[in-house]
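User: I'm putting together notes for a lab meeting next week and I want to include a structural view of one of the chains we've been expressing. I don't have a solved structure, so I'd like a prediction I can at least talk through. The sequence is below, exactly as it appears in our construct file.
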Amino acid sequence: MRKQVLFAGVAAVALMVTASGGFAQTVVNQGTTNNANVTNDGNSISIGAPAMGAPSFGVGASAPIDATGAASSTSITAINQNFNGPGSGFGSITQGATNTGTISNAGGESITVTGGTTSGSGASLSVSATGALNSVSVLAIGPTPAFGGGTIASIDQSTTGALNSGGVTNNGGISGGTLILGSGTPNDATGGNGVSASVSATGAISSVSVTSIDAASFGASSVTGTVGQKSTNTDAPVANTSTGVTVGNLTGAGSSVSVGATGAATAISYSAINTTTPGGLSIGGTVTQTVSNTGALPSGGISKVSNTAVTTTVGDLSGNGSSVAVSATGSIAAVSYSLVNSGGPAANSLAGITQSSTNDNGNTVTNTGGTIMAGALSGVDSSASIGATGAASSVSIASVNYSVPSLNSINGTVSQTTANNLGANVTNTGKITLSGPISGNGASASVSATGALSSVAFRSVK
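Assistant: Thanks for the context. Below is the predicted structure for the 462-residue chain, given as structure tokens.
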């Protein structure tokens, strides 16, 4: 769920820090409201062939096409450069985003890459339509010797939350021809680890993310207090009518291709990819996530979620932890920690976690005609998946090809309440075709339809 691009024309605080130094504690209060329709119609980005032997994309390069209703965003970003966060850290961060307008990529928006070769670490292509978004992120990309972490007193994305009551439609695609998503060379500017291509339609999302890619050292990050998140998609259908994604091989660690439609989501994620010495993410207070895709009949509103006739074509998945996924989800509350091709140990700790996820009456979830066509799954824990899910609550801690076991602890209770209610039928007609074997350790290909899921998982694969 990593979102690298800050949205233009919305409330956003972007701290691009390139040298150490002292700063006063920074308190952030953001409230964003959109009541108007937002439409991209016929937009496209065309990217030409690179010079011989050069990458198609530099480190942290991006090409997004976004239609967004309301977004509140606070970020610390460093690309191929040292940074430290504010000297005294952040104080409280409070965010709210409300959208009532119709949001759409309506005219077949497209990103086309011709003559592609490799991509720089953390490069991303995305076509997305989003109703309401709250986002806090720390992102470090590149082989710079040392990145500092970040300290935050508390995060409140729940008082107002992310609230969407306008329909969201995405009718866009990505075509890469022979584009190779990363060479997989460790700590190299053209390595392409953590490269992503995504097409998504989302009603409401509240997100906290900490990510490092190709770093020699990444400092520990912490939230000393509580994290509260709330996302609600109400009376608003979410449709991904995309033309899909076509790219080449996924050779970089943690590279991903995804096509998704989501009603409402809350997410806390920590990801270290090809990082020699990753610091962990610790949250001292409790985590509370409340998410619902609602509009229960007979009130008149329907918040159905659909992916329609999406075809996703990729080459071989040889990168460790690489993935291709097509998903339709009513509501999801997620906490995830992931380490891929990294050293350690990283110390991660969490206090208690409370998750509530509801997909309400009559709000159907469908993957209709979705297809994944791929080569071999040869990377460690590489995956191809097509899924349709009504409601999910998830806590996941995973290590992929990790040289030293991480130190992970959940110090309190994990409480999960998940409901997919009457008439919220879930349908998946997806198909996966692989031209090669599933040879990577822990690799998988899966097609699933799930009503309600509560999951706590610890996974290590090498």
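A couple of points you could mention at the meeting. The CA atoms of residues 147 and 218 lie 5 Å apart. Residues 25-50+59-461 form one domain.

User: Perfect, that's what I needed.
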